[in-house]
Amino acid sequence: MSNYVKISTIGSREFIVDELLTTEEIVDRIIKHLQQKLSQVLPEQPDIIVLPEFCDIPFNVFLSPAKTHEYCQVRGDRILRLFSDIAREHGCYIAYPTLRQQEDQSWRNSIALLDRSGDKVGEYAKNYLTLGEIEDYGVTCGTEAPIIDCDFGRIACAICFDLNFDRLRLQYVESKPDLILFSSLYHGGIMQPYWAYSCRSHFVGAIGGGQPSAVLSPVGEVLASSTNYFDFATTTVNLDCAVVHLDYNMERLRGLKSKYGSKVKIADPGYLGSVLISCETDECTIEDIIQEFNIERLDDYLDRATAWRAE
Known about the structure:
By secondary structure, this protein is an alpha/beta fold. It folds into two domains: 4-238, 4-Layer Sandwich (Nitrilase/N-carbamoyl-D-aminoacid amidohydrolase); 241-310, no CATH class. Helices cover 32% and strands 26% of the residues. It contains ten helices and 15 strands. The strands form three sheets. Strands 5-4-3-2-1-12 form a six-stranded mixed β-sheet. It has a six-stranded mixed β-sheet with strand order 6-7-8-9-10-11, covered by helices on one side. α1 crosses α3. The protein is elongated. The two termini are 38 Å apart. Keywords: Hydrolase. Residues 5-241 form the CN hydrolase domain. It holds the Pfam family CN_hydrolase. One of its GO terms (molecular function) is hydrolase activity, acting on carbon-nitrogen (but not peptide) bonds, in linear amides. This is Carbon-nitrogen hydrolase family protein.
Protein backbone atom coordinates (compact mmCIF):
# COMPACT_ATOMS: atom_id res chain seq x y z
CA MET A 1 0.00 0.00 0.00
CA SER A 2 1.53 3.31 -1.03
CA ASN A 3 2.71 5.51 1.81
CA TYR A 4 3.25 8.94 0.31
CA VAL A 5 4.94 11.60 2.42
CA LYS A 6 5.49 15.17 1.24
CA ILE A 7 8.82 16.51 2.51
CA SER A 8 10.07 20.10 2.52
CA THR A 9 13.70 20.86 3.24
CA ILE A 10 14.86 24.41 3.90
CA GLY A 11 18.48 25.46 3.60
CA SER A 12 19.87 28.82 4.60
CA ARG A 13 22.29 31.46 3.58
CA GLU A 14 24.12 33.36 6.31
CA PHE A 15 21.60 35.51 8.19
CA ILE A 16 23.28 38.58 9.69
CA VAL A 17 21.80 40.97 12.24
CA ASP A 18 22.87 44.40 13.43
CA GLU A 19 24.85 43.70 16.59
CA LEU A 20 23.80 47.06 18.04
CA LEU A 21 20.32 45.62 18.48
CA THR A 22 19.33 44.33 21.89
CA THR A 23 19.13 40.56 22.27
CA GLU A 24 15.33 40.80 22.48
CA GLU A 25 15.30 42.71 19.18
CA ILE A 26 17.55 40.07 17.59
CA VAL A 27 15.09 37.36 18.63
CA ASP A 28 12.27 39.40 17.05
CA ARG A 29 14.27 39.68 13.81
CA ILE A 30 14.99 35.95 13.65
CA ILE A 31 11.31 35.15 14.23
CA LYS A 32 10.35 37.25 11.21
CA HIS A 33 13.16 35.63 9.21
CA LEU A 34 11.96 32.11 10.05
CA GLN A 35 8.33 32.97 9.33
CA GLN A 36 9.42 34.09 5.86
CA LYS A 37 11.45 30.91 5.36
CA LEU A 38 8.54 28.64 6.23
CA SER A 39 6.14 30.69 4.09
CA GLN A 40 8.08 29.45 1.06
CA VAL A 41 7.04 25.82 1.59
CA LEU A 42 3.78 25.93 3.58
CA PRO A 43 1.60 26.46 0.45
CA GLU A 44 2.76 22.98 -0.67
CA GLN A 45 1.09 21.49 2.45
CA PRO A 46 4.06 19.29 3.40
CA ASP A 47 3.80 16.47 5.90
CA ILE A 48 7.18 17.40 7.38
CA ILE A 49 9.50 20.43 7.23
CA VAL A 50 13.20 20.05 8.04
CA LEU A 51 15.36 23.06 8.99
CA PRO A 52 19.19 23.38 9.04
CA GLU A 53 21.47 23.20 12.07
CA PHE A 54 21.29 26.25 14.40
CA CYS A 55 18.44 27.52 12.22
CA ASP A 56 17.45 30.28 14.67
CA ILE A 57 20.90 31.65 15.59
CA PRO A 58 22.18 34.54 13.41
CA PHE A 59 25.55 33.83 11.83
CA ASN A 60 27.40 36.77 13.36
CA VAL A 61 25.96 36.05 16.81
CA PHE A 62 27.12 32.43 16.56
CA LEU A 63 30.71 33.52 15.99
CA SER A 64 30.91 34.40 19.70
CA PRO A 65 30.22 31.65 22.28
CA ALA A 66 29.32 34.26 24.93
CA LYS A 67 26.85 36.04 22.63
CA THR A 68 25.40 32.71 21.51
CA HIS A 69 24.72 31.62 25.09
CA GLU A 70 23.17 34.98 25.96
CA TYR A 71 21.01 34.91 22.86
CA CYS A 72 19.78 31.35 23.54
CA GLN A 73 18.91 32.19 27.14
CA VAL A 74 16.90 35.26 26.10
CA ARG A 75 15.28 33.36 23.22
CA GLY A 76 14.15 30.58 25.55
CA ASP A 77 11.19 28.70 24.04
CA ARG A 78 9.82 31.56 21.95
CA ILE A 79 10.76 29.99 18.62
CA LEU A 80 9.72 26.55 19.82
CA ARG A 81 6.27 28.01 20.52
CA LEU A 82 6.26 29.70 17.11
CA PHE A 83 6.99 26.42 15.34
CA SER A 84 4.47 24.62 17.53
CA ASP A 85 1.75 27.06 16.44
CA ILE A 86 2.72 26.69 12.77
CA ALA A 87 2.77 22.87 12.99
CA ARG A 88 -0.68 22.90 14.60
CA GLU A 89 -2.16 25.39 12.14
CA HIS A 90 -0.83 23.60 9.05
CA GLY A 91 -1.03 20.01 10.29
CA CYS A 92 2.61 19.17 9.64
CA TYR A 93 5.67 17.89 11.46
CA ILE A 94 8.57 20.33 11.96
CA ALA A 95 12.17 19.34 12.72
CA TYR A 96 13.65 22.25 14.69
CA PRO A 97 17.43 22.11 15.30
CA THR A 98 19.19 24.56 17.60
CA LEU A 99 21.42 24.96 20.66
CA ARG A 100 19.44 24.33 23.84
CA GLN A 101 20.24 24.65 27.53
CA GLN A 102 18.91 21.72 29.54
CA GLU A 103 17.42 21.72 33.02
CA ASP A 104 20.80 20.63 34.41
CA GLN A 105 22.32 23.75 32.73
CA SER A 106 24.22 21.67 30.15
CA TRP A 107 24.10 22.72 26.49
CA ARG A 108 22.98 20.35 23.74
CA ASN A 109 22.96 20.71 19.96
CA SER A 110 19.71 18.95 19.20
CA ILE A 111 16.74 18.46 16.87
CA ALA A 112 13.28 18.67 18.43
CA LEU A 113 10.55 17.03 16.35
CA LEU A 114 7.08 18.59 16.61
CA ASP A 115 4.04 16.66 15.44
CA ARG A 116 0.94 17.85 13.59
CA SER A 117 -0.60 19.03 16.87
CA GLY A 118 2.47 21.09 17.74
CA ASP A 119 3.57 18.72 20.50
CA LYS A 120 7.19 17.61 20.85
CA VAL A 121 7.25 13.89 20.10
CA GLY A 122 11.00 13.34 20.23
CA GLU A 123 14.43 14.92 20.43
CA TYR A 124 17.85 13.89 19.19
CA ALA A 125 21.03 15.36 20.72
CA LYS A 126 24.09 15.36 18.46
CA ASN A 127 26.21 12.34 19.43
CA TYR A 128 29.50 13.42 17.85
CA LEU A 129 30.42 17.03 18.49
CA THR A 130 33.25 18.97 16.92
CA LEU A 131 36.06 19.91 19.29
CA GLY A 132 35.08 23.56 18.88
CA GLU A 133 31.56 22.85 20.16
CA ILE A 134 33.00 21.09 23.20
CA GLU A 135 35.90 23.38 24.01
CA ASP A 136 34.52 26.80 23.01
CA TYR A 137 30.74 26.44 23.43
CA GLY A 138 30.63 23.94 26.29
CA VAL A 139 28.25 21.61 24.49
CA THR A 140 27.68 18.09 25.84
CA CYS A 141 27.53 15.03 23.58
CA GLY A 142 24.27 13.16 23.22
CA THR A 143 24.43 9.45 24.04
CA GLU A 144 21.26 8.06 22.45
CA ALA A 145 20.04 7.52 18.89
CA PRO A 146 16.26 7.34 19.30
CA ILE A 147 13.85 6.26 16.59
CA ILE A 148 10.86 8.60 16.63
CA ASP A 149 7.49 7.20 15.58
CA CYS A 150 5.37 9.42 13.33
CA ASP A 151 1.98 8.74 11.73
CA PHE A 152 3.70 7.98 8.41
CA GLY A 153 6.77 6.05 9.60
CA ARG A 154 9.86 5.91 11.78
CA ILE A 155 12.38 8.77 11.87
CA ALA A 156 16.07 8.91 12.83
CA CYS A 157 18.22 12.05 13.07
CA ALA A 158 21.82 13.10 12.58
CA ILE A 159 23.50 16.49 12.89
CA CYS A 160 26.52 17.77 10.95
CA PHE A 161 29.72 16.06 12.23
CA ASP A 162 27.69 12.92 13.09
CA LEU A 163 27.84 11.88 9.45
CA ASN A 164 31.53 10.97 9.82
CA PHE A 165 30.97 8.27 12.42
CA ASP A 166 30.16 4.68 11.55
CA ARG A 167 29.02 3.78 15.05
CA LEU A 168 25.95 6.00 14.72
CA ARG A 169 25.29 4.94 11.14
CA LEU A 170 25.46 1.26 12.09
CA GLN A 171 22.92 1.85 14.86
CA TYR A 172 20.54 3.09 12.17
CA VAL A 173 21.45 0.22 9.86
CA GLU A 174 20.22 -2.04 12.66
CA SER A 175 17.08 -0.05 13.56
CA LYS A 176 16.03 0.56 9.91
CA PRO A 177 14.24 3.95 10.05
CA ASP A 178 12.04 4.98 7.12
CA LEU A 179 13.51 8.47 7.04
CA ILE A 180 16.77 10.05 8.24
CA LEU A 181 16.74 13.79 8.97
CA PHE A 182 20.14 15.46 8.61
CA SER A 183 20.40 19.08 9.79
CA SER A 184 23.83 20.57 9.25
CA LEU A 185 26.22 23.37 8.40
CA TYR A 186 28.39 20.77 6.62
CA HIS A 187 27.11 19.12 3.44
CA GLY A 188 28.74 15.72 3.81
CA GLY A 189 29.30 15.08 0.10
CA ILE A 190 29.44 11.34 -0.64
CA MET A 191 28.36 10.56 2.92
CA GLN A 192 24.74 11.55 2.24
CA PRO A 193 24.01 8.89 -0.43
CA TYR A 194 26.18 6.41 1.48
CA TRP A 195 24.07 6.80 4.61
CA ALA A 196 20.84 6.59 2.62
CA TYR A 197 21.93 3.39 0.87
CA SER A 198 23.53 1.66 3.84
CA CYS A 199 20.51 2.38 6.06
CA ARG A 200 18.02 1.58 3.25
CA SER A 201 16.28 4.84 4.17
CA HIS A 202 15.09 8.00 2.52
CA PHE A 203 17.38 10.83 3.59
CA VAL A 204 16.60 14.55 4.02
CA GLY A 205 19.47 17.02 4.18
CA ALA A 206 18.73 20.56 5.39
CA ILE A 207 22.05 22.37 5.01
CA GLY A 208 23.13 25.85 6.04
CA GLY A 209 25.65 28.17 4.44
CA GLY A 210 24.00 28.29 1.02
CA GLN A 211 24.85 24.64 0.23
CA PRO A 212 22.35 22.33 -1.50
CA SER A 213 19.58 20.85 0.63
CA ALA A 214 18.11 17.69 -0.85
CA VAL A 215 15.91 14.62 -0.46
CA LEU A 216 17.59 11.32 -1.40
CA SER A 217 16.16 7.88 -2.06
CA PRO A 218 17.37 4.69 -0.35
CA VAL A 219 19.54 3.98 -3.40
CA GLY A 220 21.21 7.39 -3.13
CA GLU A 221 19.40 9.23 -5.92
CA VAL A 222 18.64 12.93 -5.43
CA LEU A 223 14.86 13.27 -5.72
CA ALA A 224 14.69 17.04 -5.15
CA SER A 225 17.21 19.74 -4.29
CA SER A 226 17.45 23.41 -3.51
CA THR A 227 19.25 25.52 -6.13
CA ASN A 228 21.35 28.64 -6.34
CA TYR A 229 18.07 30.55 -6.79
CA PHE A 230 15.85 28.85 -4.19
CA ASP A 231 17.13 27.58 -0.83
CA PHE A 232 14.25 25.14 -0.36
CA ALA A 233 12.78 22.08 -2.06
CA THR A 234 9.64 19.99 -1.70
CA THR A 235 8.94 16.51 -3.03
CA THR A 236 6.74 13.50 -2.31
CA VAL A 237 8.31 10.14 -1.52
CA ASN A 238 6.78 6.71 -1.12
CA LEU A 239 7.92 4.93 2.03
CA ASP A 240 6.30 1.64 1.00
CA CYS A 241 9.44 0.48 -0.76
CA ALA A 242 12.32 -1.98 -0.61
CA VAL A 243 15.92 -2.17 -1.85
CA VAL A 244 16.65 -5.36 -3.79
CA HIS A 245 19.74 -6.62 -5.61
CA LEU A 246 19.46 -7.56 -9.28
CA ASP A 247 21.15 -10.95 -8.80
CA TYR A 248 18.53 -13.74 -8.95
CA ASN A 249 15.75 -11.11 -9.13
CA MET A 250 15.80 -10.04 -12.78
CA GLU A 251 13.10 -12.46 -13.99
CA ARG A 252 11.05 -11.83 -10.86
CA LEU A 253 11.19 -8.08 -11.42
CA ARG A 254 10.09 -8.54 -15.01
CA GLY A 255 7.20 -10.65 -13.76
CA LEU A 256 5.98 -8.13 -11.22
CA LYS A 257 6.26 -5.29 -13.75
CA SER A 258 4.33 -7.35 -16.29
CA LYS A 259 1.53 -7.94 -13.81
CA TYR A 260 1.36 -4.60 -12.00
CA GLY A 261 2.63 -2.16 -14.62
CA SER A 262 2.55 1.42 -13.31
CA LYS A 263 1.28 0.19 -9.95
CA VAL A 264 4.88 -0.73 -9.17
CA LYS A 265 7.89 1.54 -9.67
CA ILE A 266 11.41 0.22 -10.17
CA ALA A 267 14.09 2.92 -9.74
CA ASP A 268 17.57 1.99 -10.96
CA PRO A 269 20.33 4.49 -10.08
CA GLY A 270 22.79 2.63 -12.31
CA TYR A 271 26.16 1.03 -11.49
CA LEU A 272 24.97 -0.09 -8.05
CA GLY A 273 23.53 -3.51 -8.82
CA SER A 274 20.55 -2.68 -6.60
CA VAL A 275 17.21 -1.04 -7.34
CA LEU A 276 14.40 0.48 -5.31
CA ILE A 277 10.95 -1.02 -5.83
CA SER A 278 7.91 0.92 -4.64
CA CYS A 279 4.26 -0.06 -4.40
CA GLU A 280 2.19 2.67 -6.07
CA THR A 281 -1.26 1.18 -5.41
CA ASP A 282 -3.56 0.65 -2.43
CA GLU A 283 -4.40 -2.85 -3.63
CA CYS A 284 -1.38 -4.38 -1.88
CA THR A 285 1.86 -3.56 -0.05
CA ILE A 286 5.49 -3.89 -1.06
CA GLU A 287 5.72 -6.85 1.33
CA ASP A 288 2.80 -8.54 -0.48
CA ILE A 289 4.59 -8.08 -3.82
CA ILE A 290 7.91 -9.36 -2.46
CA GLN A 291 6.24 -12.50 -1.14
CA GLU A 292 4.15 -13.02 -4.28
CA PHE A 293 7.18 -13.01 -6.57
CA ASN A 294 9.69 -14.40 -4.04
CA ILE A 295 11.89 -11.34 -4.47
CA GLU A 296 14.99 -11.32 -2.28
CA ARG A 297 15.76 -8.10 -0.41
CA LEU A 298 19.32 -6.78 -0.63
CA ASP A 299 20.04 -7.45 3.05
CA ASP A 300 18.80 -11.05 2.77
CA TYR A 301 20.98 -11.59 -0.28
CA LEU A 302 24.05 -10.20 1.50
CA ASP A 303 23.31 -12.36 4.54
CA ARG A 304 23.03 -15.42 2.29
CA ALA A 305 26.37 -14.63 0.64
CA THR A 306 27.98 -14.15 4.07
CA ALA A 307 26.60 -17.48 5.27
CA TRP A 308 28.05 -19.29 2.24
CA ARG A 309 31.42 -17.69 2.92
CA ALA A 310 31.33 -18.87 6.54
CA GLU A 311 30.58 -22.42 5.44
